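Example 3.2
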Amino acid sequence: MHISKIYLFISLILNIHQKYLIMVLYAEDIMRKNIRIFDENLSASEGARIMASNHTGFIIVGKNNVPEGIITEWDYVNKVVAKDLDPKDIKLKSIMETPLTYVSPDTPMEKIAKIMSEHSIRRLPVIDVNKLAGVITSRDVIKFFNEYVTTMVDIASKFGIR
């Protein structure tokens, strides 16, 4: 590759990288909003119906509209189905994961990804002054990083780099 093409390629990569560094995304930029909090005294059966009707793999649980825990499909499998329990007899508070691992709306994307990776979680509540602002899912994080990688690959391919 000619030296001027290499220089141009490096310059473009640095400019794209700077763009992503300058344009830092925060939790509030990628979170799913309008997430409801469900009462901890609902039955696991009712919780499962809510998850199914909302087409989500989780519900946030709390009392007095304050988030206290999260239930995922994994919690249902491990804590109800695998133990052959009747979901009508189980309260959400007995199967929810607590304390919540969460971030604030101003948490930067790289910290979000690190927290989700270190804690092996796919849903991360965003809490602002004890109020649920939203939830970030692993799909939201993957979408962001996919856009970044796609941009880098597009630039590299213009210079014949694989």
